[in-house]
Design goal:
With 168 residues, the protein is α/β, with parallel strands linked by helices. It has helices at residues 15-18, 23-29, 40-55, 80-88, 100-103, 131-143, 147-151, and strands spanning 10-14, 33-35, 60-62, 92-98, 117-120, 155-161. The two termini are 26 Å apart.
Length: 168
């Protein structure tokens, strides 16, 4: 999957992954930024820091479902990526990913052989900086593109907050 993404993207992951004995060191080596999801005060602080970095031009990759399961279809998207996007005035690029659930199954740490497909939609620009804008952006990322995330199926979603050529 990493081979399909451009260089220079910073990944965002839940704090618990940074504490995993195998995944943690690998993710830290990739420069992953970890966010708190259970402590509200720390979560807000992490979100503000990510907005600051995004406003400075850092492109961030989020997995807005926050986790994955073997069940087909999309899980609800967490608000974090969209709050960061709106707060930084940075567009999001929704990307549908198919095949990862067969390769790395829920509860497994050893991947299987398989094919991963990605489909990127057009960038979606926030039309303001408040909570309502972030909610609307989350809805658009989930339903408008790309191809309504392949009409669910066994697909996961990635949202990339990034500068796009020609603006934002």
């Amino acid at each position: 999957m990493f081979s399909t993404l451009p260089e220079g993207l910073g990944f965002v992951a839940k704090r618990e992954l940074g504490e995993h004995p195998i995944a943690g060191p690998l993710l830290r080596a990739l420069g992953t930024r970890f966010v708190e999801r259970t402590d509200t005060e720390r979560s807000v602080r992490d979100s503000r820091e990510l907005s600051r970095l995004a406003a400075l031009g850092e492109s961030l990759v989020f997995f807005p479902e926050g986790t994955f399961t073997r069940a087909p279809g999309l899980l609800p998207f967490h608000m974090g990526p969209f709050v960061v996007s709106a707060g930084a005035g940075m567009p999001v690029l929704p990307v549908a990913v198919r095949g990862t659930r067969s390769i790395l199954r829920d509860g497994d740490w050893f991947p299987r052989r398989g094919v991963i497909q990605t489909l990127a939609g057009p960038s979606l620009r926030p039309q303001g900086k408040d909570w309502a804008v972030a909610v609307a952006l989350r809805h658009r990322a989930r339903t408008e593109n790309p191809r309504a995330l392949w009409r669910a199926g066994s697909v996961g979603g990635i949202v990339i907050c990034c500068r796009v050529p020609g603006g934002a």
